[in-house]
Amino acid sequence: MYDHIFKRAQSLHGDKITCEKKHPQQLEIKTDRHYVMNLLSWLKTESYVHLAFISCIDWIEENQFELVYHVYSYEEKNHILVKTRLDRDRPWMHSIIDVWGHAQPYEQEIHEMFGVYFPGNPDLSGLFLHNWKDLPPMRKDFNPKDYSLALYSLKGMGHEALDMDFIQEITELEVE
Amino acid sequence: MYLPDGYTTLEKISENDDHILYDLFFGPNHPGMHGNFGYVLDMVGTEILKVRPNAGQLHRGFEKAMENKLWAQNISLIPRVCVPDPDPNEVAYCQAVEAIMGVDIPMRAKYIRSIVLEMSRLGSFLMGMGGVAGALGHYTTMYLMMIDRDLILDLFEALTGARVYHIYNIPGGVRRDIPEGWTDKLLALCDRLDQKLPEWDRLLYENPVVQDRLKGLGYISASEAMASGITGPSLRACGVAADVRIDTPYAAYGEIEVGINLSGGGDALARAVQVRLDFEEAVRIIRRLVAALPGGDFKLDVGNLAKLRVPAGDAYSKVESSKGEFGYYVVSNGGLKPYRVSVRGPSMPAGMYLCHKHLRGMKIDDVAVWMASFAICPPDIDR
Amino acid sequence: MSLGEKSFFAPFATLANLFKKPETIAYPAEDLNVHGKIGPSLKYRGMHANDHQVCIGCASCETVCPTAAITMKSTGASDAELKGANAQRPVIDYGRCCFCGFCVDACPSGSLGMTREYIYTKPSEKEDPLEELVWKRDMFTIEPGNRWADNPGWQCTNDETWLDLDRQHMHHMAATERVGSFIEFVTGFTKEEALREAARCIECGICTKTCPANMGIPEYIRGIYDNDLDESIRVMYETNPLPGICGRICTHKCEDVCAISHRGEPVAIRWLKRYAIDALGPDRVTEIATHAKELFPPTGKNIAIVGAGPAGLSAAYYLSTMGHGVTVFERMPKAGGTMRYGIPSYRLPDSAIDNDVAAMIGMGVEFRLNTPVGEKVSFETLKNDFDAVIVAVGFPGGRSTRVENYDHPDVGLAILLLNRIRLDEEIPVHENIVIIGGGNVAMDIARSMARLQKVKYGKVSICLTCLESETEMPADREEIEESREEGIVIRDGWAPKRIEIAEDGSIKGLQCVKCTQVFDENRRFNPKFDEGETSFYKGTQVVEAIGQTADFSFITDEELKQMGMDRGRFKVDETMESGVKGIYVIGDIVHGPDVIHAVADGHKAARSIDTWLGGH
Lengths: 176, 383, 616
Ligand code: SF4
Ligand code: SF4
Ligand code: SF4
Description:
CATH topology of the largest domain in chain C: FAD/NAD(P)-binding domain
Order of helices and strands of chain A: HEEHEEEHHH
Bound molecules: iron/sulfur cluster
Number of domains of chain C: 4
Mean pLDDT of chain C: 88
Helix content of chain A: 25-40%
Strand content of chain A: 15-25%
Largest interface: B-C, 42 and 45 residues
Oligomer: heterotrimer
Shape of chain C: globular
CATH class of the largest domain in chain C: Alpha Beta
């Protein structure tokens, strides 16, 4: 089963993909972003009908985002990770909601958390974060601690006007 | 009325001679809702025209936080991704880490993990069935089920030291061995649960009111379910024989027999019955696991856990939870902390995608029932 | 199960339930006794308890706490009072704690545990909201102590702990193989082993305080763990310029107090040091060691050092890093002192010494070898020609027991024999040898003689006697065990009485009496004997290894007295300056024989000379 899809993928798409067996029942296929759609559609016809989810990884040192589409076949009982890299400065990716409708919220989430654009996805509005104005928070260059300190310190909460004793007391709390 | 910038207000959508169309917030503050999630509904009378999921009330950035903690420290955070059924998270994460490290854990550890997973499943099913009952107004049934769930939690407490967040699995195995006499108590509890089933049948499943309310609600065909990312009991309720425990066995499920019973039908009633069938099977699985429990170590020696360094690589590990496929995609760059932990929760496809299709035209009374039947649990959407 | 129609009588089923026992528990009227003991389970993760007598303040709990709930609070005790512990104890903020119990599983001393107590409330005592805030914070921040300790819950055994309790096995040549040669028999860690061993360290720093040179042990172990050996070596050279030597033969006092030793085997600190040095290679090590050369401009001051042993070398290195000119006078043909001419090469090969000395040469230290002070150059000249003089002559001579017939030609002094072995001289080796002494030198000579016997006669026949019982023997445990493996018979608790001579003039053996006490209750040397119990050890050659002596013939008696000589040793303070201005004494002649003490002395002397000469 495992070998079967491996061979087929290589014979049909060999020049466009690099394919690697990873863990038992797990296969990794790397391809260019423009080819992902083709590949996923093909996989869907090859009984890989289950899109588990989509993950995004910020490889900040290589200045790239990596998208990982997790697809699974109920017949071959294989899990395939389709990986593709995006330029981190201008991150965008074809939406796959025409292949799998439920990719919509996943793409919406990745847009919100990493700032990747998905042309074709009808709703890229904020999903989880309310009133978010900072960097997309799952990016590696977003520092949650600094953010919290800035936002939830007295200044961040707009408390400058309070009487000095209180501020002193609170500041001591923080220092200790 | 003063409302801070950007807060959502009750919006008048449109108005004609007969109707005024409003946004209706179904949750987070609603008895049929979990308290941390909601749907914003466009209603005409009691009928839903349009739905917008309102997630994020629970968002604590678990995935981000996990990038800033040691490999082992994350275990204390992970069960919080699913409150009623926490152990699949721990196990999936640990398995992903073990897969990247390329280690195989001792058989006893695998069995203990499986037992814990099945207990967690039972506890979660009781809550899920109770949830369906509660959403239908059958509170007595729900409370009766909570009593039995509490007995499971007692056993968890004796094994792991805590009732809800067990923090019990670690990369390499589990934190403590099974105490003396614990398995006997577990088997006694299994007997009790078996005996309880007829009572629940009478109270819930054979109840005409329940049947009428559930029949036909939220129907989904097998092919559509598969293509929409629906997994677990909800998928089996469409007649698809898919179960991670059988298809890609993990922990000790490859060693023992795991039965699969399908309710079929694809509607809320089928899903409720499927949970009951799975419950029955889980009790059987526990008995098999206990009977075959091997001796040996309960964890692998991976060196100082606080300084665990996982080689660069990535792995996806999935576990059949009470709600469906729980998966952890873990990426390591060879450091002391994960580079990325990406969680696949089972609630996202139904809760965030199917809702658009299913809730349209539905009566508002059915929303909570529909959610309970798909076991939509917001923490794994938000994470 | 059927999903059929409901019976008409179904509503009456309710009646049947009227008489059922209720499922609820009326707490607290009824006890919650589900775990065989009232209250939560016996493993419950509730409030913490910490035994302050046992806790070593290692902060391992703080490191692993995922919620950063633990902070360490100083107990105010001085380091001197706390041997092998840090003067701090954990304090837990229960506003953060998630009761995961990781802190318990990572506690090396086993002092920290969790209890079955979980109810902790108190009505607020404060009216003012601000005061209440402060009060609440204090309420929630608890230093776990004995409170609740009588109701233990989650505890951790050695099987369950997060720590890695077992050392990586160090490869040795087999005893039968190694006893035939003087080749170094410990082969060192491989990279995997070193990484695994380095991961065992919890970076508590308790060892640093115990190390005489205060080496940055956790830092250099961390360097090894991070695979950053450059950093590791750099840290070592901050406090110890002889890491290659110490990585082989240090008495590793640090390992005795290692936090991990409370539950398991201590971290192999010494072997890790050796690994870092060997893995990086001598050239790179020397490069890092001499890196300091450019940092400080030459001061134009010159310092003479008498003796190129560990103390002298250490002082030479640190003085030269500070820009001073250094000349070392050594009576032997090579630098190294006792390390080269006392310690056998199966423990410390010449190459290791040469590699470490290369750093001093690289720093521009001038070595005047084969130049005994007092013969080729006078002490007076040194005092006149140099800005300061360091006396680091060590203990080149041996002490004798002076029992009857000690002056027989077949009776030898260990240190002198070792010296000759190292100089590749032929020394007399008899078929049966008796050795007197229980220290490391006794082990060295016994094992050296064993090797020579093996080569000459093909078998080992050595009996080692000492005053101390085996547990009191000053030699390292591993030395004792390895000696036994090599076929040396150890007879502990016997005091030498007389060396018996046969008619033909050769030695017959050693007559001993039982030694019942070596140290009195004040730990002072005060041996007591039981003359009634005697034993006799056969052998035609006897070697005495009961202590060493210094040779100060190049200094006048009067000056020695001025310098602070008192019964064979110098009494000096932290500056290492003797009673005479500008003369410093360091090493064995101050602290007794120990390489790492000597290294520390050298560093101290270098610093105080630098201060005195108006350096940095
Ligand atoms: S880990 Fe244990 S020994 Fe170390 S400071 Fe904490 S309580 Fe004390
Ligand atoms: S129980 Fe967990 S959260 Fe609480 S202090 Fe210990 S390590 Fe920290
Ligand atoms: S070597 Fe031992 S004593 Fe030293 S820092 Fe590491 S654990 Fe602590």
